[in-house]
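Section 3.1: Structural characterization of target chains.
Under the original work plan, the team committed to producing a structural model for every single-chain target entering the pipeline before any wet-lab resources were allocated. The record below documents one such target. The sequence was received from the expression subgroup and is listed exactly as submitted; it comprises 478 residues.
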Amino acid sequence: MTLLDFNELPVGAQASIQTTDQGVISGLAIDPAAAIVTPANVGAVLLAANGNVRYVTEQGSDATGTGSEAQPFLTIQAAITNCAALASPSHPFVISAGPGTFVNSFVLAASVFLVGSGRRTTIIKNPAANWIGTSFAGAVAADTGIMQCGFATNPPVVNYADAAILSTGASRFFLYDVAFDAVASTITGNSTVNLLIGQDWETIAVGGTHAWTNINSICDGVYLRATSLTYTNNAAYALSLIRWGTVQTSGTLTLSCASSTNSLSVLCASAIFPGQIVLTGDGAFLRAAAFYAQTGADANTTFRFDTAVAGAIPMVTGGQNVIVATPTVERVYTMVGPAATLLPSSAIIRNDSATNALVIAFSGASETTQTYVAPLSSAQLVWFNGAVEVVAPQTQRGSVALTNGVSAFIPADIRATTTITCALKTFSGAAGVPAALSADRVNGTRATTGGFKITSYLLSAGTAVVTDQGTYDWQAVG
């Protein structure tokens, strides 16, 4: 079609012309006589000149409005109804809402977008139970969204899993340059190809919890203040297209997914600043430069990064993880590190027990000989290139009582370079010079055969002080 062909179109017909280098020109055929602007036809003329925009203002009218800038509608729903049948992915429509507060219910249609005049000046209080309609039903692949608006009183609700919709098409919902005033969003997907795209969010006042369920998302510049975000996958499909830039909240970020097959995997490429992170279920994965603190169970426990392990406690890949434990008896913590292709990750394990050790077992490559965390000690572990090493090895320490000048064998992580020192703590019977001679040392890990014995020596004779029943403090370093 060429521009000359517009002469053959019936009045009211919509047409598009593909240009060689400037994309597509779209237009609406009108009666030439009506193109003369008069007070009676000004709305129709302006609408024809800007055919894919419908205007809404507080001063508009649903009865006499045409949707033009000169004759706007009063309600957003009237504008949507006016253009929904004309909208398509190749020819989307915009509902341009002016300053003010819009309290009437509306339901967005496929390829129709709501654009306000500013997130602090166009306030939406939509009471609809679902802000998208049946034009998204089934395999329909279409977009919609809201830009430059604020939300108050009624939270935005987008539900692709509504019984009347059950979307299986690649449909996207955009939330750009928006503000939340004591409300939070509820977004629910029905297919792995449903997608939430959010950017430049402001929270004016905290209220509610953002709840995103069974939907992939791409977000950046999302500032939630103290509003929490709960992200859940309980669907029969995995959520692996979750990509975030900066997401900030001083509330709680909760990722929940019970299935290791149909997982929930969040990748934050820039920075994530939650007040608290909660990861629950075998299928919840978070890759981010984040701080994640948790209390270790008083039980043998497995911790994992990006490998699904049934019953394991998830940690943040690429983050700094802190585990604080107070075991009542000796416990074993098994660490399943991230794959070699993933981000370097760290974990600090702090043992607050005064008497019981935490044994550390590693699944995968290890470049450390440290196999436990002594009472009132900590260990910092770093995984890089798939292997784990200890950045700040602990000083192993303890106390032992001698029997006839010799201690029982003390299990410990011992290498050829380990230095063992001893000091008298409690005198009993006699006292010599305590030492762990080479013959009394076994190189190895505490979990296997590593350890040493302490003997009280009379240096002048080079013999044991068999009357020494004292108690000695010891330290093993390196």
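Residues 30-49 have pLDDT under 50 and may be disordered.
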